[in-house]
Amino acid sequence: MKMKKVLAVLMALALVVLCFAACGSDDAASGGSTGDTIKIGLSGPLTGDNAQYGIGVQNGAQLAVDEINAAGGINGVQIEFRMEDDEADAEKAANAYNVLKDWGMQLSLGTVTSGACIAFQGLASADNMFVLTPSATAVEAIEGDNAFRVCFSDPQQGVEAADYIAENNLATQIAVIYDSSDAYSTGIYDRFAAEAAAKGLNIVSEQSFTADTATDFSAQLQSIRSSGAELVFLPIYYTEASLIIKQANSAGLDVKWFGCDGLDGLLRIKNYDYSILEGVMLLTPFTPSSTDEHTVNFVKNYTAKYSDTSTLNQFAADAYDAIYIIKQAAEQAGITPNMTASEMCDAMKTAMTSITYTGVTGQGITWGADGEPSKPPIVVRIENGDYTVLQ
Fold this sequence. Notes:
- This protein is of the alpha/beta class.
- The protein folds into 2 domains: 37-151 and 291-374, 3-Layer(aba) Sandwich (Rossmann fold); 155-284, 3-Layer(aba) Sandwich (Rossmann fold), CATH 3.40.50.2300.
- The chain has 11 helices and 15 strands.
């Protein structure tokens, strides 16, 4: 009889333990936190061809996190920050999202590159997880009312580039080399082509490549030479652009070069002859030589913290601003660490469309419900191994 009573008590205790375990499991699944920190996660390329972008984002974000934590955090709460390596690959970005979700991510910087962010954002949207990508420019990268970005979108860059070329009479005969396998590149080019036509620019040579053929550009350059193009538009990343410009220089092709934010990084390629980059123009939200207070402080603190300044680029600046933007929106929204990720997201959506932010990558930046930022573009030209801002 006593044995039966003992067994009954043990079974009751077991049911209580299971009940508490189940309740805890439900809380974790809904994105709740039992800790006293706010967890911000993202993924990006920390290895591979695009690592300079990812490391820059990681460094810029971490610098901002450290500064904010030292100053008291967000609403008095410290930030935990974690980044996963996705090698700029969509499948790995999706895996990274699940790893970060299991870690307890409550707010996100999405990913660094566009293709990866599209996959990441698909999962985040389904979970109603807040995303503020610093640098993913594809339109699809922020589809859903949970997502915003710091940088310009691909279409915005395409339009701004065509407008600048036309309004400043840089050329009327334009050639283009773009990566047909990349969402970033094709997104910019499609809108550039439409805006160029509207502005009276003539695209005389349209050349493409894919990730598998991005080493030898002799055929594309020969076609451009034959077309009589005065300017070559490069809506691509700096790694391929550096090869194209080097091969064009060797072939004696004398043209102007104009690109977008993907070219940022040209001046930080090791063992590269920067003299052949003289005159290259690009859209970028950040130049380290700027004398405005926000940029001066950012550059000073970044170089003090990180010995490798090759990653001091617009990606680092965008990520630095992204963390401070999250802080401003989260404080306005009254975010607390015990809120679920979905609850945080709902609060952040409203806050993001009501704040105005001034930082390293722009002044008076605002956001619409579509997640797009409103800020003026900056065009720079490479002169004597540095950026000069053009008016």
